[in-house]
Design brief:
Its EC number is 2.1.1.192. This is Probable dual-specificity RNA methyltransferase RlmN. InterPro entries: Aldolase_TIM (IPR013785), Methyltransferase_A (IPR040072), RlmN_N (IPR048641), RNA_MTrfase_RlmN (IPR027492), rRNA_lsu_MTrfase_RlmN/Cfr (IPR004383), rSAM (IPR007197). This protein is α/β, with parallel strands linked by helices. The chain has two domains: 59 residues, DNA polymerase, domain 1 (Orthogonal Bundle); 279 residues, Aldolase class I (TIM Barrel), CATH 3.20.20. It contains eleven helices and 14 strands. The strands form three sheets. The chain has a ten-stranded mixed beta sheet. Helix 6 runs parallel beside helix 8 and helix 9 packs parallel to helix 10. The relative contact order is 0.11. The structure holds iron/sulfur cluster. Iron/sulfur cluster binds next to loops.
């Protein structure tokens, strides 16, 4: 059955037109769903009984089931179950009046980065648009209890957003548009490992969302060791596509850089990064490595973390040191799901 959360308003208008209904009914339906969070069409009381019944028969209104919520200070992590029994996770980070939701886009991930728990799973499947939107509905329902709203969305959970392009783009429209979640494009960030052709495609979508690129190394030799796809999409070409995106959208690009001890946190790595980004519309997020048992990498020493940051800052690079709020409750990429499956006796 078609899940209504996969549809944009124009598509619903067309369907309703075919049913002989006026187009404003679509606005009423979306108002119930996205503003009042009503997911039972029978409760949409300003619609005729016939239309309510028809909606019930034609569409599914299902959202993912919450299996477990873990919380630690500012971070809440939701382990969700999809209709086919697969698990995904969504993270809510509440900080300084902001409620940022980190959504997943795939069950597992095909990229296989050598520092990521999700990379160990491999790709099981892409999420449908409604499964991405459903994650936001679950969290908005939870936030509603304290009369708060989602303010920011980051595509930074399980999976590579640009490897599930069509569903991700559609979900961004639903999140962004007034008839949907009505969250402005500057509050939406898509984080990618760097699938170059899709970055160019994204630049042409006129979405003007923020783009973050997981760089994690300042030369191809190092980057290819932890991000296999770098062999196909090397750093120079990746940066070219990123700066094209910046030029097209007027938004500087964020480069995520996970600092790993004695691997990419040395003085020469910082200097090399400066050479790549100096004078460019770029911002660097430094993230000290969040240890995953399955990988040998160690967390950088504090003095090396601060030295790295200082070299960038002193060279005029915009840089932020980000402490991962999720790390204490295993909110890093894919870790809660991995733990859950382990407890269920499944292998990942
Ligand atoms: S870091 Fe991102 S792209 Fe790489 S394996 Fe993990 S989820 Fe996939």
């Amino acid at each position: 059955m078609n899940n209504i959360l996969s549809f944009e308003i124009n598509e619903i208008r067309n369907i309703l037109q075919g049913w002989g209904e006026p187009s404003y009914r679509a606005d009423q339906i979306f108002d119930w769903i996205y503003k009042k969070l009503v997911l039972n069409p029978l409760d949409m009381t300003n619609l005729s009984k016939t239309l309510r019944q028809k909606l019930l028969e034609y569409f599914s209104f299902q959202i993912p089931k919450v299996v477990r919520i873990t919380g630690d200070g500012n971070t809440k992590k939701y382990l969700l179950e999809l209709e086919d029994g697969e698990n995904i996770e969504t993270v809510l980070i509440s900080h300084k009046n902001r409620n940022t939701v980190c959504v997943s886009v795939q069950v597992g991930c095909p990229i296989g980065c050598k520092f990521c728990a999700t990379g160990l799973i491999g790709l099981k499947r892409n999420l449908e648009t409604h499964e991405i939107i459903g994650q936001l509905m679950v969290i908005q329902e939870d936030l509603e209890k304290k009369e708060e709203k989602i303010s920011n969305v980051v595509y930074m959970g399980m999976g590579e957003p640009l490897a599930n392009y069509d569903n991700v783009i559609k979900s961004i429209r639903i999140i962004k548009e007034e008839w949907g979640f009505n969250i402005g494009s500057k509050h939406i960030t898509l984080s990618t490992i760097g699938i170059i052709p899709k970055i160019y495609q994204l630049a042409e979508e006129n979405l003007k969302i923020r783009l973050a690129i997981s760089l994690h190394a300042s030369n191809n030799e190092l980057r290819s060791k932890i991000i296999p796809i770098n062999k196909e999409y090397p750093i120079e070409e990746l940066l070219e596509s990123a700066f094209y995106y910046a030029e097209k959208t007027g938004r500087r690009v964020t480069f995520e850089y996970v600092l790993i001890k004695n691997f990419n946190d040395r003085r020469e790595d910082a200097k090399e990064l400066v050479r790549l980004l100096k004078g460019k519309p770029a911002h660097v997020n430094l993230i000290p490595w969040n240890k995953v048992r399955e990988y040998p990498w160690e967390t950088s020493d504090l003095k090396d973390i601060f030295r790295f940051k200082e070299i960038l800052a002193n060279s005029g690079i915009n840089v932020t040191l980000r402490i991962s709020y999720g790390s204490k409750i295993k909110a890093g990429c894919g870790q809660l799901r991995a733990l859950y499956l382990k407890n269920k006796g499944e292998t990942i």
